[in-house]
Amino acid sequence: MTESINVVLIGGGYSGVMAANRLTQRADVAVTLVNPRPEFVERVRLHQLVGRTHDAVRDFREVLAESVRLVIDTVTRIDAAECALELASGGTISYDYLVYAVGSDKAAARVPGAAEFARTMASLEDARELRAVVDSLPAAAPITVVGGGPLGIEMAAELGERGRAVTLVCGGQLGPYLHPSGRRSVAKALARLGVRVLDGPGAKVVEVTAEAVRLADGRELASAVTIWAAGFAASDLAARSGLSVDVVGRLLADETLTSVDDERIVATGDAASPSGMPLRMSCQAALPLGSHAADTVLSRIAGESPAEFTRGIAAMCVSLGRSAGVFQLARFDDTAIRLHVPGRPGAVLKEAACASPIDQLAKEAHKPGSHSWIVKDSRRVERVAAQRAAGLVVSGRAG
Ligand SMILES: Cc1cc2nc3c(=O)[nH]c(=O)nc-3n(C[C@H](O)[C@H](O)[C@H](O)COP(=O)(O)OP(=O)(O)OC[C@H]3O[C@@H](n4cnc5c(N)ncnc54)[C@H](O)[C@@H]3O)c2cc1C
């Protein structure tokens, strides 16, 4: 009997599950997924969990192929020399190939008091705690959301719609990704929900206390709970394991998504930094990255040269409570254009964008190899070529 090839994935989020499902194409590949919790987290709905409009979890079996072995544990170290993973439970798992799909978590706030007093909704556990805190507050208690990106906008809108007294402190511009016309639609919708928006250079939080936030321009806002929604940070697992990472700690890979240190390790999702030019941390990018990561591993197993990643993302959907949204269209290199869909149609599109990843994962679980992605980022290909010519980018790994 021939022995199976062991492919182990760390992280059962959008990207890890997509890759795990796709890897089941080969009967001689044993796929193991290590994830800290027994349920799949719909991270894109964690602000809804806080606002009590969704529980943001699914049974893994709705999205994960039956033949994938699910191990509920946390990887504490990757021993690349031994091709083994150390687990929090004390055990180890060995692999022939490893897919690094640990996603992202809350950004470490360097602002004094933020680590101590601010809360986040970047993980299931944090979002559940935040919901309990919000629920325990009197209806009129002031809530401050910090971060003018999609995370902060969605969180502020969700709570504003519930009648909460919310101030959104942007730390600069409201929705920096958005086209000015999309930004105006977001601002109007937030105003309708009663969310006070503070933007501009002075609207930067410089200190958080148990009951207030202080801004760069000297203003002090009463804040019964401060929610830090100013982006994500990478896990330090790769760096702790001695693997090369980019400046924010994502695993440094080439354009096939293979680690620059080790041909047996492939990175995907929020945790991957191909050529040090990562895609925007997003569910949108996590799915095509996940299927490409699986294809890279399958190519190596087949003794073929893996292809380079050329897919792109071309939109941002922002929910503004349950009855409005903005669907901001973008070029294939992920820069916003004037065209956007606001209001209720925007909310319908946003809901479809949140539901679609679950459908895509379920489809790949039942029909591995079927996932496809039409958006091609030809500018990425040009940028990588230019950087390579300048000797700045790691070259693709052959075979
Ligand atoms: C409130 C909110 C709203 C969002 N809205 C959108 C949106 O509208 N559109 C969009 O495109 N993106 C959105 N995002 C971002 C999106 O959720 C992430 O970019 C996406 O989840 C990344 O997928 P991933 O598979 O790389 O990582 P994740 O989904 O984060 O999954 C990673 C998994 O790895 C596990 N893990 C981590 N470390 C270990 C370890 N050491 N051992 C084992 N397992 C580990 C984690 O617990 C997790 O289950 C939103 C995020 C949040 C928080």
In short:
Among the domains are: 5-36 and 73-106 and 233-310 and 376-389, FAD/NAD(P)-binding domain (3-Layer(bba) Sandwich), CATH 3.50.50.60; 114-228, FAD/NAD(P)-binding domain, CATH 3.50.50.60. It has 399 residues and is α/β, with parallel strands linked by helices.
Task: Give a written overview of the molecule.
The chain has 399 residues and is of the alpha/beta class. Among the domains are: 5-36 and 73-106 and 233-310 and 376-389, FAD/NAD(P)-binding domain; 114-228, FAD/NAD(P)-binding domain. The chain contains eleven helices and 25 strands. It has helices at 14-23, 46-50, 60-63, 114-117, 124-136, 150-161, 180-192, 237-240, 283-301, 343-366, 378-389, and strands at 5-10, 29-35, 39-41, 57-59, 69-72, 75-79, 84-87, 92-94, 97-100, 104-106, 118-119, 142-146, 165-169, 196-198, 205-208, 212-215, 220-222, 225-228, 232-234, 251-253, 265-267, 272-274, 315-319, 325-330, 336-341. The strands form eight sheets. It has a five-stranded parallel sheet, covered by helices on one side. Strands 11-18-12-13-14 form a five-stranded parallel sheet. The longest helix has 24 residues, at 343-366. It is globular, with a radius of gyration of 21 Å. The model is unreliable at 395-399 (pLDDT under 50). The site of flavin-adenine dinucleotide has 36 residues, from helix 1, strand 2, helix 2, helix 6 and helix 9.
